[in-house]
Specification:
- By secondary structure, the chain is α+β, with helices and mostly antiparallel strands.
- The protein has 2 domains: 173 residues; 269 residues, Chloramphenicol acetyltransferase-like domain (Chloramphenicol Acetyltransferase), CATH 3.30.559.
- The chain contains 16 helices and 12 strands.
- Strands 4, 7, 8, 9, 10, 11 and 12 form a 7-stranded mixed β-sheet that branches. It has a 3-stranded antiparallel β-sheet with strand order 3-6-5, with helices on one face. Strands 1-2 form a two-stranded antiparallel ribbon.
- Strand 5 and strand 6 form a beta hairpin.
- Helix 2 runs antiparallel to helix 3 and helix 11 crosses helix 12.
- It is elongated, with a radius of gyration of 29 Å.
- The termini are close together.
């Protein structure tokens, strides 16, 4: 299990009636500002943007984050809170005159609240109930401003609008404080700096943290690894599995299951680099591969992605992988959701498509690529494994992709026989399979890679251990 020391993970549930009451109050606040702004006809576009558009956008964004991502990403509500803070920081200049002391005190109260809200929702303070108490800070500042607003001419629509909208806003936020809960499942939950496909590693050695800034491109940071595995035991194991009913069980399932088991003991192999930062996929091992409907030159191909777990056995890997392959091959045309997306992209004019791809790379750099695109992308994953043996050729060193974050590309060739001389002079014939890997050297050091592949070799020498789940799944560091 992943437990981040000294950090709470707060959340709110859509099943809680208080959450919906908060949404009702905040939407009501936005409606009041839009319907009765008191600024119509002012002719000052800057004032309209700062006094209406900004608070309305912040209010609605807060509601959307809570309702859509409140279970896992409640900390992101700090973004609209800072937008509200900017709005309230601009406000006193219109009602408090030119008194620099009053304006400084007012803005300090708002800033102090925004900072503490961010810290508390990030889980760095272990008392979430402080949020309710902290509302006294901005409330006091806003109530002070209210005394000036209400001092305007009787019935001023500006004063009435501001007071009513603010009461609805703070009332809704105060209600939500009563709905906040703490995750106590012992699992890791996202926080600032994490991506939707991985959590940021924050305790790396200084050199490991800065390496990716000097070595930017994935292909210039690739290590090439080649190994030959004697497969007598593997062949015997495959025949046994086929007798048990796994008719399509083959060498791919064994090599992949052994890799998954290796990650259970050496989790750093499930890391990746994005935006010059190191991330871990945790227990989500994303295996990518190319599928062809028929082994012909004319047959189209497509990519699939299979989600595996470090605790998976060889049988689990077999069922998950074959289910993903059959779901694609069973269609009349060999097609996947990725192919459908690419067809739409191909409709875009070339010059616009070039900009779209640049935008996707920019979003990916900052971890803002939508989750459904990351799921479709064959460039985002833990491992890409391809069988050159099915093509009747030796394995190749396949390059990594500069787009995405795939850190490992493996290829294995067809079986070969070799004559070897034993110590007593006897000549025996053995069967081997050659495997080649291209690895991103930045996710872990060389000693770690070497230790992993020695363990990988031991697993393939005794594939029967893959029938049982691992005794322990080692967690990556925070």
């Amino acid at each position: 299990m992943y437990v981040m020391e000294k950090r709470l993970h707060l959340y709110v549930s859509r099943k809680n009636a208080l959450t919906w009451l908060m949404a009702l109050c905040l939407v009501g606040s936005a409606v009041v500002r839009i319907a009765f702004p008191g600024l119509k006809g002012s002719g000052n576009s800057l004032e309209v943007w700062s006094q209406i558009v900004l608070p309305v956008a912040a209010t609605l964004l807060y509601v959307l984050i809570v309702l859509l991502n409140g279970k896992e990403m409640f900390y992101k509500t700090a973004i609209p809170v800072w937008m509200m803070g900017i709005y309230y920081a601009i406000t006193p200049h219109t009602v408090l005159g030119d008194n620099p002391f009053l304006i400084a005190m007012y803005c300090t109260c708002i800033l102090f609240y925004c900072v503490l809200y961010t810290v508390i929702t990030s889980g760095k303070i272990r008392y979430p109930w402080l949020l309710a108490v902290l509302f006294l800070i901005p409330l006091a500042a806003v109530f002070y401003a209210h005394s000036h607003w209400m001092g305007m001419p009787s019935g001023s629509p500006y004063a009435i609008t501001r007071v009513l909208a603010d009461y609805l806003l703070f009332g809704g936020l105060l209600v939500l404080c009563l709905a906040i809960r703490v995750h106590r499942d012992g699992e890791y939950h996202p926080t600032w700096g994490d991506r939707n496909d991985g959590r940021k590693i924050r305790t790396l050695a200084p050199m490991a943290q800065i390496t990716a800034y000097f070595q930017v491109e994935r292909n210039t940071c690739s290590n090439l690894f080649e190994e030959s595995f004697e497969i007598t035991h593997i062949d015997r194991y495959i025949r046994q599995k086929r007798r048990e009913g796994l008719t399509d069980f083959g060498i791919t399932h064994v090599l992949l299951a052994a890799y998954v088991r290796g990650i259970a003991k050496y989790p750093q192999l499930n890391r990746f680099i994005s935006g010059q930062k190191v991330y871990s996929r945790g227990n989500d091992i994303q295996y990518c591969m190319v599928v062809k409907k028929e082994m012909t030159v004319e047959s189209p191909d497509t990519s699939i992605k299979v989600h595996l777990h470090p605790g998976d056995t060889a049988v689990d890997v077999y069922h998950k992988l074959n289910a993903a392959i059959e779901s694609v091959k069973s269609t009349q045309e060999l097609d996947s959701s990725l192919d459908g997306l690419i067809q739409y992209l191909n409709l875009i004019p070339s010059i616009v498509l070039k900009f779209v791809v640049w935008l996707l790379k920019l979003l990916d750099y900052f971890g803002g690529l939508p989750k459904f695109l990351v799921e479709l992308s064959p460039f985002h994953g833990s491992l890409f494994f391809t069988s050159m043996g099915s093509l009747g050729i030796p394995p190749i060193y396949h390059h990594l992709y500069d787009f995405g974050n795939l850190p490992c590309f493996g290829a294995f060739g067809c079986k070969r026989r070799a004559l070897e001389v034993l110590e007593d002079g006897t000549v025996v014939q053995k069967k081997y399979i050659d495997v080649k890997f291209v690895l991103d050297e930045r996710i872990c050091d060389g000693y770690y890679y070497a230790t992993f592949f020695k363990y990988y070799r031991r697993l393939l020498a005794h594939p029967e251990v893959l029938d049982n789940p691992p005794e322990q799944i080692v967690a990556d560091i925070d």
